[in-house]
Amino acid sequence: MKAIVVKPGEKGATLKDVELKETVGENEVKLRTLRVGICGTDRGIVTGKLSFARPPEGADYLVLGHEGLARAEEVGQNVDLKEGDLVVPVVRRGCGKCLNCKIGRQDFCETGEFIEAGIRGMQGFMREEFVDDAKYLVKVPRDLGELAVLAEPLSNVMKAYNELVFVQKRSVWNCDDSTFGCRKATIIGSGPIGQFFAMVFKDNGFKVTVVNRRDPNQIEDKISRVVGYSFVNTSKGLDDVPESDVIVDTSGYPSAFIPLLRKMKRNGVLLLFGTVGGEKAEITSDLITFFVEYNISVIGSVNASKLDFEQGMTFLSVWKSRYNGVLQDMITKVVKPEETQDAILEKEKGSIKTVIEWSK
Ligand code: BGC
Ligand code: ZN
């Protein structure tokens, strides 16, 4: 079958014929790949920036792809799915040793011996078909269809949001009407992850500002109006950025979030999500004093549990009807497998999410 593969130490990705013999066990499902999203992690792997990328043990190549959407074609006898059901596979598989992995929270694996589809130690979903254990498959609600290709990136945002709310239980953080309506969140970056953070915070009552070092493009402008958040171009200064209870960085650039900390309120949270910015930054004692004196929590967050995927699916269904065409607009490009190489190597200017269509 055809697959997009990378070889350790080599830059770029190629469409190749691979042989992967997989039989369908009683708890497994054979899946036809429909769509796979491309993200910064894939770009980090093909440009050699993400040093942790590796093929499965014994293999000399890695099939890329972790943002999958597939259709069940053959269902094992113990599996509660039907032929034709759409599913999204979970990315990370646990070490089998630590308690977090044993209870399905491999996103908090303690040994670090987990594997991740299309990233480290496990073949990914950029291929025509694959077999997977049903416990790692999230069923797609009927109304969502191919928009469910957005579920994986959103699951990461769900987890990060849930963590933030958990950490903020350290004090009373709700407003005097019980909601989060008095709280303000500022999100750095207007890519898919930034947009999802904006929507999740907005739907939880926060006032939301998304910042970037440029003006919004047409699609971003539309999304900001439909969802109801402000977009601030920080290259013109920080005056329009409100004092915030939460600052989320999706860029991975310290030069983007450190200056913004001036806008952080007491008891606030700096949520770090972006990676591979490739910058060096200075941590001064003034900055440390600020973190201490203002009770700032800094949260790093990666990956997601199956529950976060399920919660994300529900949000996607709501947004599909609430935010008139916005999810569709976020998928700015659909490419064929043969066109993937270029799409992975460089993010097209003005694009939000590019997906590969493997089958309809
Ligand atoms: C994926 C996560 C994964 C992470 C690894 C992200 O792009 O969505 O599932 O854990 O990369 O850094
Ligand atoms: Zn991704």
From TrEMBL:
Enzyme class: oxidoreductase
Keyword field: Carbohydrate metabolism, Metal-binding, NAD, NADP, Nucleotide-binding, Oxidoreductase, Zinc
Keyword Protein biosynthesis: no
Catalytic activity: D-glucose + NADP(+) = D-glucono-1,5-lactone + NADPH + H(+); D-glucose + NAD(+) = D-glucono-1,5-lactone + NADH + H(+)
Gene Ontology MF terms: D-glucose binding; glucose 1-dehydrogenase (NAD+) activity; glucose 1-dehydrogenase (NADP+) activity; NAD+ binding; NADP+ binding; zinc ion binding
Binding site for substrate: T41, E116, E152, N156, N303
SUPFAM superfamilies (UniProt xref): GroES-like (SSF50129), NAD(P)-binding Rossmann-fold domains (SSF51735)
Family: Belongs to the zinc-containing alcohol dehydrogenase family. Glucose 1-dehydrogenase subfamily.
Signal peptide: none
Protein name: Glucose 1-dehydrogenase
Glucose dehydrogenase C-terminal domain residues: 146-357
PANTHER family from the UniProt entry: L-THREONINE 3-DEHYDROGENASE (PTHR43401)
CDD domains found in the cross-reference section: glucose_DH (cd08230)
Gene: gdh
Residue numbers binding NADP(+): S190, G191, P192, I193, N212, R213, R214, F273, G274, T275, S301, V302, N303, K347
Described purpose of this protein according to its UniProt entry: Catalyzes the NAD(P)(+)-dependent oxidation of D-glucose to D-gluconate via gluconolactone. Can utilize both NAD(+) and NADP(+) as electron acceptor. Is involved in the degradation of glucose through a non-phosphorylative variant of the Entner-Doudoroff pathway.
Short name of any one Pfam family annotated for the protein: ADH_N
Cofactor: Zn(2+)
Domain Alcohol dehydrogenase-like N-terminal: 25-141
GO BP term (any one): non-phosphorylated glucose catabolic process
InterPro entries per UniProt: ADH-like_N, Glc_1-DH_arc, Glu_dehyd_C, GroES-like_sf, NAD(P)-bd_dom_sf, Zn_alcohol_dh
The keyword Nuclease is assigned to this record: no
Domain of life: Archaea
Segments forming a coiled coil: none
